[in-house]
């Protein structure tokens, strides 16, 4: 949860220092500049993880492996919805806000992520989406995963490889959520408005 102390608003990233750009390895600076050029701002997770360059590389390499892989039945909006739903359970404001914004952009649905944040069981989800989130949340909560979980996914068009993708996203972001928690990672203000109105409106 956010701190109610007035000084907390002055900490734009978190509780660990962000290195100066000139002190960072070239490959990390190059990636950060590429992301900033593409999005118009640099998400705070890049700043925070640059505190540990080797872990920065490992973190974003695995992120790219699961989020930008070729093939599979999960769309970009599916993946972002999984992150939103599981990050709510893990009480991670940064990931809820940031990935809620990305879901709005990829899905072009400005309210669905908000519905999932409040109560995913009452959200305007298809049966397919419900099955996907049920599996993701079972992994998130470390429930006993049984064949029934896989069979339910299969009834909605997901195969075992899709189940792996859903489970891996849930598991990776459980780690990411906990990193954000202990470093007190704050969402960029830009995320709050992203995808809520058509461009140019």
Automatic annotation (TrEMBL):
InterPro entries: AhpD-like, AhpD_core, CMD-like, Uncharacterised_peroxidase-rel
Segments forming domain Carboxymuconolactone decarboxylase-like: 53-101
One function term, GO molecular function aspect: peroxiredoxin activity
Stretches assigned to coiled coil: none
Family matches, as Pfam families: CMD (PF02627)
NCBIfam families named in the record: ahpD_dom (TIGR00778), peroxid_rel (TIGR01926)
PANTHER family: CARBOXYMUCONOLACTONE DECARBOXYLASE-LIKE DOMAIN-CONTAINING PROTEIN (PTHR35446:SF2), SI:CH211-175M2.5 (PTHR35446)
Protein name: Carboxymuconolactone decarboxylase-like domain-containing protein
Origin species: Cuculus canorus (Common cuckoo)
Organism taxonomic ancestry: Eukaryota, Metazoa, Chordata, Craniata, Vertebrata
